[in-house]
Amino acid sequence: MPFLLGIDLGTQSVKSAVLDDEGRVRSVAQAEYPILTPRVGWAEQEPQAWWRAACQTTQEAIARAGVAAAEIAGVGLAGQMHGTVCIDREGLPVRPAIIWADGRSGAEVAELMAELGRERLARLTGNPLATGFMAATACWLRRHEPETLDRTAALLLPKDYIRLRLTRHVGTDVTDAASTLLFDVAGRRWSPEMAQAAGVSLDLLPRVCESHEICGTVTRHASRDTGIPLHARVVAGGGDQPVSAVGNGVVEPGTLLATIGTGGQLFTPLAQPSHDPELRTHTFCHAVPGRWFIMGAMLSAGLCLRWLRDRVFGGLGLDYAAFSEAAAQTGPGAEGLVFLPYLLGERTPHMDPHARGVFFGLALRHERSHLVRAVMEGVAFALRDSLEIFRSIGISARQIIAAGGGAQSPVWQQILADVLGASLAPVQTAEPAACGAAILAGWGTGVFPSLQEATARIARVGRMVGPIAENAARYDERYAFFRSLYPLLREAFRRSSIGGPQ
Fold first, then answer.
1. Domain ranges, residue 41
2. Residues contacting residue 99 through CB under 8 Å, at least 6 positions apart
3. Count of H helices and E strands in the chain?
4. Parallel, antiparallel, or unpaired: how do β-strands 208-209 and 172-173 relate?
5. Does residue 437 belong to any structural domain of this protein?
6. Which of 230, 245, 369, 452 would you label with 427, given CA atoms 20 to 30 Å apart?
7. Within this chain, do residues 209 and 281 fall inside the same structural domain, yes or no?
8. How many CA within 13 A on the CB side of residue 295?
9. DSSP 8-state assignment for residue 346
């Protein structure tokens, strides 16, 4: 029986999963690594730490699965998007990787936006530019560390460093390349015009493959370090969001994926590339050939509830189940309390790094249950912001799938259905990014005859949750009020952030 290995290089940890040819998860292993912050607002990681964690988890996952290493037929990769890994001609990192959460390139973003203008940027990429994206990071390096670029032979995305260590092949895939803002998303190729604007030589940009394409085989040294058999085939893989969508079965237009993880995303596949003219959303290549996706992204979703648990109610020993029980004790609208979930700034729809979290309408009668429910509702309102943008540009969906840790809460499921005004089904795929990577490996190596068949075996959804008409009407009113708050506070956010903590 052939087995498949998926490696998901996340921001805080790497997870490796072994799947059998029926799509069953046989084992999962995880190892963590730190985010380095040498200065306020910077976020870096050591690629070697990624590799050590990948080696540890692949060995553990294969051992826990109880399979012979020789039975691993293919390896797939998923990873955090947007980051920049500079490697030299020997394949060694020139400096620590600058990851997506890094904010040092704010001035470069502003300058590029001023140079290109929104219409030209939309035409070239279909996307807004943000700090932490490779285009902005490369501009920062050119200005502040020119010696780094002088020593750099290739610019890679994070998961592509793992691919390099596995196969000694330098490359990337269309989904990750699209997230750099140096890519022609519609044409699925590098953009000479964007590269020139960012001051990046096309020689530094690696060959691009589709996500299921075999891009190399495991070398002798990598086999020794990882436990993966020599010459096992490795597919290109992709960014964590599109690969997670594969793991959750969201591969064709008409299905919308609402994810409440640390951040939050609203994601739907497209048959043709389409973008928001105001650049409030992201349009990237999907991990499926001939498919794209549009995504609204919020930076703090489940993170808001974790903040409430750890920082506000820390020491009380409360868990998320207790929070769900608390939220159920108060009705829609949290008795007038509204929460803006902008703890890290916000992307969709505001693209504002200065935005901050707000509890609005606090009164003496409010207690824990109101705060918890307001946080859950605020996250749902922020996801509806993305849905309203989708609708405004003619994108609709027949089915909504809810994923992520937050979507496992029955109370949050109901709030989300009521706020979105649509029925949704919670997906029950364990570790969707690692599983999606393994699915792509299975498709690319022929273990699965088609992507659709593979996802049908793995992605399973739970009981459908429909909106309650009375609640939905109430939430329409509260959402309108929620939307009115940011414009009133935008200038105050900007002023309060000057010289303040980020």
1. 3-242
2. 11, 35, 43, 44, 45, 80, 82, 83, 132, 158
3. 17, 23
4. parallel
5. no
6. 369
7. no
8. 28
9. B
Residues 6+ apart with CB under 8 A from 183: 125, 174, 177, 189, 190, 191, 194, 285
Structure tokens at 197: 């604007």
DSSP state of 467: P
Read off the tokens for 388.
């309203």
Give me the residue label for tokens 């000479």.
192
Q: Which residues partner with 257 through β-bridges?
A: 267, 401
Do 51 and 224 meet the contact criterion of CB atoms below 8 Å apart? Answer: no
Joined together, the tokens standing for residue 64 give: 């826990």
- Count the residues in the chain: 502
Residues 6+ apart with CB under 8 A from 407: 258, 259, 260, 413, 416, 426, 427
**pLDDT tens per residue, range 285-310:** 999 999 999 999 998 999 999 999 99
- Which CATH number goes with the domain that contains 420? 3.30.420.40
- Asked whether the predicted pLDDT for residue 499 surpasses 60, the reply is no
What lies within 8 Å, CB to CB, of 500 at 6+ separation is none
Query: Among 217, 204, 241, 179, which Cα is nearest to 73's?
Result: 217
CA distance 127 to 462: 33
Is 8 labeled as catalytic in the residue annotation?
no
| Least confident window among 66-70, 200-204, 469-473 | 66-70
The pLDDT-based confidence of 485 (bands split at 50, 70, 90) is very high
Out of 8, 20, 240, 385, the active site residue is 240
